């Protein structure tokens, strides 16, 4: 019985499509203003040592990444203090691309209210604003002119206690509104930022976005993917 059940699960997983939601990390990867640029340094090479070993220099918030509470809360936990269940499981996609046609491109409680049912306690909510399609991650203004959540929208989300909120934005706020993170992190909500390829997703899918086990650190790059059963339309 166990063997039959396990085989069924494996076949189901193998039949799923996998869509990569992660930015490539290389020395040309654009970073948030003020963050360290990505640098790869050769520690060993095939010509000299007979094997390859590379040292990486990069911020914990490089590319597609998660924010741990410690990023903005002095008493907050680091990456390894977060429950792994937050990073794996069913997720729902919100399509906010029409927002890009509005002046100011602010995400307000009124923007989110039609999607209230998605923001249930313990849910994983992924928000697609279309920003990476209009302004690619390597563009100069990708990190400065993106849509932002108003403080009221942040509190609206925090009050509903989803488990994880992901987005195609480099940050939920502008450089002048850094305190916007705090209500979400205090509510125990994991922030997943810098996602790509969100327009390839159906409304419901399985998210996998595990961080590195970086003890006590404030964030981590992730390899985020969506797993989609063949029966679901794109």
List the helices and strands and how they pair.
Blueprint lengths: L1 H13 L2 E4 L18 E6 L8 E5 L7 E3 L20 E8 L10 E2 L1 H4 L11 E5 L2 H4 L13 E2 L1 H10 L3 E4 L13 H6 L3 E4 L10 E5 L10 E3 L3 E4 L6
Parallel strand pairs: 5-7, 6-8, 7-9, 9-10
Antiparallel strand pairs: 1-13, 2-3, 4-10, 4-12, 5-11, 11-13
What does this structure look like?
With 234 residues, the chain is of the alpha/beta class. The model has no long low-confidence stretch (mean pLDDT 90). The chain has one domain: Putative cyclase (Glucose Oxidase, domain 1), CATH 3.50.30.50. Strand 9, helix 5 and strand 10 form a beta-alpha-beta unit.
Which stretches are poorly predicted, pLDDT < 50 over at least 5 residues? Answer: none
**What is the CATH first-level class name?**
Alpha Beta
What class do helices, strands and sheet pairing give?
alpha/beta
Total number of helices: 5
Biggest β-sheet, characterized?
Answer: 9 strands, mixed
Count the beta strands.
Answer: 13
Question: What is the third-level CATH name, the topology?
Answer: Glucose Oxidase, domain 1
Strand order, biggest sheet?
1-13-11-5-7-9-10-4-12
Short structural description:
This protein has 234 residues and is α/β, with parallel strands linked by helices. It has helices spanning 2-14, 109-112, 131-134, 151-160, 181-186, and strands spanning 17-20, 39-44, 53-57, 65-67, 88-95, 106-107, 124-128, 148-149, 164-167, 190-193, 204-208, 219-221, 225-228. The protein has one domain: Glucose Oxidase, domain 1 (3-Layer(bba) Sandwich).
